[in-house]
Write a structure and sequence with these properties.
heterodimer, A: alpha+beta, Dna Ligase, domain 1, seven-stranded antiparallel beta sheet, six-stranded antiparallel beta sheet, 13 strands, B: alpha+beta, five-stranded antiparallel beta sheet, four-stranded antiparallel beta sheet, 16 helices, Transglut_i_TM (chain B)
Amino acid sequence: MFFWKTWKALQAQGVMGINRRNADYVLKYNKRHLYPVVDDKILTKERAIAAGINVPEMYGIIDTEKDIDKFDSIVAPYSDFVVKPAQGAGGDGILVIADRYEGRYRTVSGKIISHEEIEHHISSILSGLYSLGGHRDRVLIEYRVTPDEIFKSISYEGVPDIRIICLMGYPVMGMLRLPTRQSGGKANLHQGAIGVGVDLATGLTLKGTWLNNIINKHPDTTNPVEGVQLPDWNGFMTLAASCYELSGLGYIGVDLVLDQDKGPLILELNARPGLNIQIANDTGLTARCHLVEHHLAALKKAGKTETVDERVAFSQLHFGAQLNAEPSDTQPSPEPA
Amino acid sequence: MHSINLHLKILIAVLVSLGFLITGYQIYVLDIPVTEDETDDIWSLDAKVEFRATPGTPIKAQFYIPPLNQEYVSLNESFISNNYGVSVNSQNGNRRVTWSSRRASGNQTLYYRLVLTKRYSEEQAAAAPPPPRQPIPLEGPEQIAADALINPIRQHSADIETFISETIRRVNDITDDNVKLLLNGGTGAMDKARVIDLLLSNARIPLEMVHTIRLENTEAQSPELWLRSYNGERWMYFHPETGQQGMPDNRLVWWTGPEPLLSMEGGRQSNVALTVTNSEMNALRLAKLTTENRASALLEYSLYGLPLQAQRVYQVMIMIPIGVLVILVLRNLIGVQTLGTFTPVLIALAFRETDIVWGIALFTIIIALGLSLRSYLEHLKLQMLPRLSVVLTFVVLLIAVISLISHKLGMERALAVSLFPMVILTMTIERLSITWEERGAGHSLKAAVGTMIAATLAHLLMTIPELTYFVFTFPAVLLILVAFMLAMGRYRGYRLTELVRFKALSKQA
C-alpha cells in the first residue's frame, strides 16, 4: 500500500497538509476581520510604517481613474520604481521600472514601454483586473528593491525573497525563494521559482525544492544553492517576528527582501502561506508548530508573554538545522490531539 | 477549542441520529417503500352473475361480497349493472349487495369488481366471538347416529381443537354407517360441513362456515369452504374435508354462514363466475392511493404533497447537496483541483440538459474556443466587465452556431445546449484563463480536467434514479450528509494528492 506507507511516513515527519493548516492554524489563529491588513499591501505598509518596521518606501497611491494624472508627479523624482496592485495575488500585475529611456520607461527585463501603456496598466489595476475576485483595487507605487549582490550567483533576474512562517510571532520555518527563467523573474514557487530552506539559527541556506522535488543547484546558474550565508539574518528574524504585533494574525507567512542599501525589508504578509516550504527545509511544520504551542501554553500558565527578541531566541534555539538533527529530549512529543 | 470540539461532536451525533430516526420512521412505521421500483400485488376480484329472468316478475338478486374489515384494503369497488338498483348492506360481519329490477327479460349479466391489496392497512379487530349455541334438535335414528359418533370423539379429544379435528376426521370416513346416515347421500363439502356442524352443536361448540377465495391468478374459481370455531381466545380455521388446521395466507374471506353466495328471486339458471387476477403496481403510487382512501396524512407532509411541477424542480434541487458532497470529498479528501468551489456542481446540473457525453464534448469545444477568444482579447487590454461581456456574447453565438450546425446534420441532441447555462460557461472560461496566466498551462489544464471529473461524477451520482427517489422521499438523509460535512470541516489528515506532493519528504524517513 503506497498511500498508507507514505501517509505514515509523512505523519512521522510531522508534515502539515492543507486540511491541517486550514483547520488547526489558519482558522484558529487568523481572525477573518484582520485579513484586509494582509490582503491590501497599502494597509500592510501603513501599519508597518506606524510600527517602525522597515518596508520599501511608498512613493504614492492612485485610487481613482482621475488620479492617474498624478502618476507623473509621483514618479518624477525617481528613475526606478515599482507599480503594483494593492490586492494583487501571486505577483500578478506588478510592473518593475528599472530606468527611463527617451521619455519612455524600461522594465527590468529590458522591454521599453510608453507612458500610455503604463496608464492603461494602472487603469486595469484600478478596475480590478489583478485583484482577487475582481474587486476595484488601488495602485501602489513604491521603491524598487535592488537585490543584494549575494544572490547574483543563485538567482535569475527578479528579486529573490525570503519567506518566514511565524506562529504567534515565533518564526517556525524559513525559505529563500529564487526566481528562475521558468518563473519569469517571479519568486513564486508554483510558477517555477526555487525554494531553498534556511537554517533559522544561523541563516545558512539548506537544500532547495523545485516543482516539489529536492534539488541542490540553481537550474539556470548551476551554482549550488546550499550553504549560502544570508547577511543580517537576525534582522530578518526580528522583522518577521514583529509582524505578529503588526497584523494581529497568528499564523502568517512573512515575505522579506534584502535590499543592497536598506537591508531587510518587509514586502508583504500572507495569511495562507504555502506548504512547499516543508520540502525546501526537508522538515514538517506540524512538529515545530506543536513545540511553539506547548511553549505558549506553558507561558500562559506562568502568566508571561515574550518580547520579539525572546521569541526569536526561542526559535533559533529550537529550530536550528544542527540542533534539529540531534534527538533532543526537551522537545515534547507532538500530536496532542 | 475543546468546548468547540465537544459542541461539534454533539451536533454531529444529533444530526446523524435525527436523520436515521426520521428515515427509519418513514420506512418502518409509515411503510414508505425504499426503492421506487418496489411493487405490490394488487388483486382484482371479478364476479360475473348470469341468470335468465322470469318474465313478469320483479327480480331481486342477493349476492355476498367480501367484507372490507380484513387485512386487505380496498382500492376500488364497482358494481356494473344496467337498469338495476343496487344497494349494499352489512349483516353479521358480511356484506351483501342487492340488485333489484321491476322487470327484465332474457339473459341478464351483472358484474361486481373489487380491487384490493395487502399493504398499508391498519390492524383489524378480529371477528366478534360467537354467542353460545344450543344443540340442533335431532330425531330418531339421526340422534342415535350422532350420539354414536360423539361419544368416541369425546373420548379421543382433549379440548375444542382436538374435538373438531376428530369430528372432521370421522365425518370424512364415509364408510362409517353413522356418517352415511347423517350425510343422507350427499358427499360434497357443504354436506360434510353440515354434519360437522350438527355434531359440534351437540357438544355446544360454536362453528361457522367461512367461504373463501384463493388469491391466485385463476379463472372461474369457486369459493372454498372452511370452518371456523372459537376456543374462547381466538378463531381457529379448519378445512372440512382434509381436516387441515389454519387457513393459508392467500385466502380471502368472502362471506360467512350457511347461505349460498347468490340467492335469486325472479330468475333461474343462475350462475356465478369468480375470476381473480393479479397485477403489480408501483408501491409508492399504491401508498398514495390507499392514503387517499384512508384520508390520513401519511404522505401529506412529505415533498409529495407539492404540486407536480414543483416536485420536479425539487427532485433536481434536493440532489444538489449530493453533488456538493462529491466536490467536498474530491477536494478535501483526494485533493483534486477544480475551478472555483461549486462550479463543478453547476456544470453537473448543466449536463442534465445535454446528456453526459454530449455535455462534455460541447463543454470542451465551447471552453476551448472561448479560451482562444479570451487570449486574443488579452492583447486588446480591455477592462474586466467589458471583456466578460464580450466572452459571454461570444459564448451565446457559439452555442447558437453549434446548435444550428448539429441541427442541419440531424443531431437533435445538441439543441439542448441552448439551455446550457451560458453564465457558467463564461465564468469558467474567465477563471480558466486567469488560472492559465497565473499558474501556467499545466496547472489550468489540471484544474479543468479536475473540474470535468468532478462535474461528471457529481452528474452521474445526482442522476441515479434510485438515489434521487430515496433522497426525495426521505429528505432526512440530508441531515446525515450535513453531519458528514461538519465532520469534514475538522478533518486534518492529508489529501491523497499531498501524499504525492510531499513524497520527497517521506523518502529519507
